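User: Hey, my collaborator sent me this sequence without any context and asked if I could get a structure. I don't really work with proteins. Can you help?
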Amino acid sequence: MRRFVVMSGLALLPALALGACSGGSKTSGPERAVIAKAEVICQDTQDKVGSKLGDDPAADRDAIRAATDQLMAISAPTQNQQAWTLFVQSTNNLWITLDDVAQSLDPNVNDKARADRARATVKTVNNLVKKYAADYNMPECAKGYGR
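Assistant: No problem. I've predicted the 3D structure and written it out in structure-token form, which is a compact way to encode the shape of the chain:
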């Protein structure tokens, strides 16, 4: 019996080695192409946003809105479609929330309480952007905006 267990264990070693050599990545070629495009968009947008998201809500809104338009134009493969859709939708929600901050701070509105609530939502939505970007294996986008 002991000999059988040892032999079974040895039979598993090549399978484990093959799994380790493959890198464990399940990212397809078309998905890698989407990731490459999205990572460039995220980096460019981060450069426009700067170190703190919401310091200039109108400028940040415009940068993230432009990024959202570019991301929506990418035709993602059906593999891992849900993670891609959630990432793009969260990015869309982020610029909309930043628009709420910008409008709240407009001198004609001047609603500090509304702006504070919207800022809290910006943090929450940016965390969702990070999560869904990580789910789609996009390390640059997974850093979020405003580091």
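In plain terms: The radius of gyration is 21 Å. You can pass these tokens on to your collaborator as they are.
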